[in-house]
Amino acid sequence: MPNLLNLAAGLAGVFALAVILVTVFGFFSLRKKEKEAGQRTHEALALLDAEGEDQDAADEVARLFEASLYGDLKEFGEALSRVSRLQYEGRMLPDPEPLLEARGLYSSGPVRSLGRLLAWIILGLGSLCLVVILVLSAFVTLPGAALPAAGAVFLLALVLALLLLWQGGRSAEAVEASRKQMISRLAELFPVLTKDQGTALLVSETIAYGEKMRREVQSFSELARDLTQAGFAEGIKKSVREIMSQEVVPPLNDANYALTALARSLASKQEKGMEELAGTFSNSVSEALAMHLAPLPDKLQILHQVAEHSAGMMEEAQASMARTREDSRAISQEVQEAMRLMTLAKDDLSGEMASISGSMELMSRSADKMTALYTGEQTNLASHIKEMTGQLEFYSKTLGTGIDESAKAIETSVRMSASQNKHTAVLLERLDEQIGVLEELGRLIEGNTGNFTKESGAFVSRTLEDFDRGLAEVVERLTFTTAEIRDAVESLPQALRSMSGDR
User: Fold this and answer.
1) Most Cβ neighbours (<10 Å): which of 115, 228, 337, 380?
2) Number of domains present in the structure of the chain
3) What whole-number distance in Å separates Cα of residue 143 and Cα of residue 159?
4) Is the dihedral of CA 482, 483, 486, 488 positive or negative?
5) 189 and 216, same domain (yes or no)
6) 3-state SS assignment for residue 470
7) Residue pLDDT, tens place only, 411-449
8) Contact 24/161 with Cβ under 8 angstroms?
9) 192 pairs with which residues across the strands?
């Protein structure tokens, strides 16, 4: 039993010690944050109360916070100056609360959260001590003093948790008070544009503008009333009527008459100018055509002579062709005759060859007989040999005669072919001469026609260009005259107004 009592007392003491340590840590942490906020505020107020310079709000606040020992205050001063430059041209400072919250300066939320967290930890330790004692009592029998000790630790934890919550709220309020103190000092020293001040300024400007407009409308109404009561409108109407009837209408009528006369004069001058231009154009065309077509009869005469010469050459070519045709006919007849002779020689040669074939058969039979004679039948050998020799001589003479006639026929054909080639060469030469003459005639005709076409085209182009230039000059003069008339008409009302003003 003493051991269990010691165990329960030890557990309660450990939990109580842990609760006390967490509470002390929480109190010191919260006090530290409160003190830091106070020190930062004290330094900021001291910097803001320093002697200022003749600068705008943006430069002044940046210069003051530049001397701070806290880096976050330096950044806060730079941010204020930068936003003031961007939005208000450095004359006013923006609302500092969003900038403080963005940098975590004077934020009461983290302080309250820290107090709540530590309070929950302390309460959790007390609850854990009570639960452990109750669990042990369920498994083993503890002394009667164990449960009161656990309850005392739980109550201590509850009291300390409430105390930390109170301290957290107090520290958060102190941080909030430091923030408000610095913001109020900024608002006392510099023009700070908060939401309420911006709305008030807008309302004030709107009211001032409405009052100004009301005064202007009232002044205009009084002026209109004075003019209406004095008969100003009737006087203006009468004066305008008199000025229009006496000063404006007569000059307008004179200007109308002058413009009508000017238009008639311009029309007559235009008609006369066009007639002169047409006459000049026709004369120029006639003279240029006469000058350009003067050498045409000579060229046509030369062309006629060339044509007559070509006709004579064509007649000579026709006669030459007729002679060539007769020569070709004669040559053809000679060739036909040579072919007929060659056919006859061929027939004779065929007969001779048939005779030679018969003689060869006879010689074959003779050879057989000679063979028989050599084998023992040598009777009448001498007579057969003599007969065979005579036949051989006869056939040799006949064959020589046929060969001579064939050679003569071939020689005649060669001579006829040479004559035919000669006549053909002469004919081709003459045809080449005729073709050359015709080509020369074609070139002369083409050259004369091309020169005539080119010169005629150039002359017509020059004539049309002269006409276009003359017409463009007339149009330009008419355009210039029209522009002068338009300028005169446009300046007429101004001249009339100046005349009315002089009077």
Assistant:
1) 115
2) 3
3) 26
4) negative
5) no
6) helix
7) 766 676 666 667 667 767 776 776 776 677 667 767 766
8) no
9) 93
Residues 122 and 170 both lie in one domain: yes
Q: Which amino acid is it at 222?
A: E
For residue 359, the tally of other CB atoms under 10 A from its CB is 19
273 in a structural domain: no
What pLDDT does 502 receive?
52
Residue 206 · residue 105 · CB < 8 Å: no
The parent domain of residue 331 ranges over: 290-502
CA distance 341 to 351: 15
Does 329 lie in the same domain as 471?
yes
Pairwise pLDDT comparison (172 vs 277), residue with the higher score: 172
Residues 221 and 152 in one domain: no
Q: What is the mean pLDDT of the chain?
A: 69
Long-range CB pairs of 287-294 (<8 Å, 24+ gap) are 288/459, 288/462, 288/463, 289/459, 292/455, 292/456, 292/459
469 within domain boundaries: yes
Rounded CA-CA distance 252/224 in Å is 34
Q: What is the spatial distance between Cα 156 and Cα 498, in angstroms, rounded to a whole number?
A: 107
Higher pLDDT, 169 or 372: 169
Residues constituting the chain:
503
